[in-house]
Design a protein that fits this description.
- The chain is mainly alpha-helical.
- The protein has a single domain, classed as Globin-like (Orthogonal Bundle).
- It is 76% helix and 0% strand.
- α1 crosses α2, α1 packs antiparallel against α7 and α5 packs antiparallel against α6.
- The radius of gyration is 13 Å and the shape is globular.
- The chain starts with a helix and ends in an 8-residue tail after the last helix.
Length: 126
């Protein structure tokens, strides 16, 4: 996870703690909305991913996130949650791109491709 965090901080300018939180938020979103088999393979290929998801999940889902979730969620809810964690709109695309590029390196395109294809709107972040 340290290598991924370092790459994300370099590409986005986020500090390491925010980068780790953002990675956890995205992975938790993929767990919820993505194809289970591929997402599980991705998480297994990223040491520390479960911890990042657990840390990000402790932020709760109430407040505006609860409202967005009740309106359907999806990538819009993900963006709202990332902004709440301190990620700007301009940092979201490089964050998503770097996370998925790293995932391709570790798990392969046969894992990442179906994930991106299964989640409407996710392709704009890769």
């Amino acid at each position: 996870m340290e290598e991924l965090i370092a790459r994300v901080t370099q590409k986005t300018g986020l500090d390491a703690a925010t980068a780790e939180t953002a990675i956890g938020i995205i992975l938790a979103f993929l767990q919820k909305d993505g194809p289970a088999a591929e997402v599980n393979q991705l998480i297994a290929a990223l040491p520390g991913a479960e911890d990042a998801i657990a840390k990000a999940g402790s932020g709760g889902g109430g407040g505006i996130m609860g409202m967005v979730g009740s309106m359907g969620g999806g990538v819009m809810a993900l963006g709202t949650r990332l902004m709440g964690a301190g990620v700007s709109m301009g940092q979201m695309q490089p964050l998503g791109h770097e996370l998925l590029a790293y995932g391709r390196e570790k798990a392969g395109e046969d894992v990442i491709g179906p994930i991106v294809g299964a989640i409407p709107g996710l392709s704009q972040f890769v």
